[in-house]
Amino acid sequence: MIIRIAMPADRPQIEAILREAFPGPEEADLVTRLYDDGDVVISLVAVVGAEVCGTVVFSPMTAPFKALGLAPVAVLPDYQRQGIASALIHEGVELARVEGWDGIFVLGDPEFYQRFGFLAETAASFENPYAGPYLMAMSLLEGELPVVSGKVDYSKAFAAL
Description:
Layout: E1 2-5, H1 11-21, H2 26-36, E2 42-48, E3 51-61, E4 67-75, H3 84-98, E5 103-107, H4 110-113, H5 120-123, E6 126-127, E7 135-139, E8 150-151
Parallel strand pairs: 4-5, 6-8
Antiparallel strand pairs: 1-2, 2-3, 3-4, 5-7
Helix pairs in contact: 1-2
């Protein structure tokens, strides 16, 4: 498996992955809107053989520090449970760190995302429409985030979800 930066030619495969991995079109439509709005900061794909089989997207968040939102991450059904999503997330987090981002938020299953360092406690003092146990954050800095409270919002494309 190879993980690489997504190229414009990968967009049809990314859309197909999202449509197969999720029960509805919302995630595929979200990524299309993020691309169309210029709100894709990091987009990675996993390739096995010649097939693009996984994707992860990070978009900028409005926050009191330099923050990204992780969403969505998806893998074709035939390739699930092989560590591809985890590899995509690890690579994306490292790339965000290298690029100088301060932190990342994610909305999802705590049991899954805690293994990467995302914690609901880190996000708990931030105001967000999704605040609660499924909104998690992680610092990409030594120690905690530079600001530990305030308002955070996902890119405008998320409002359509």
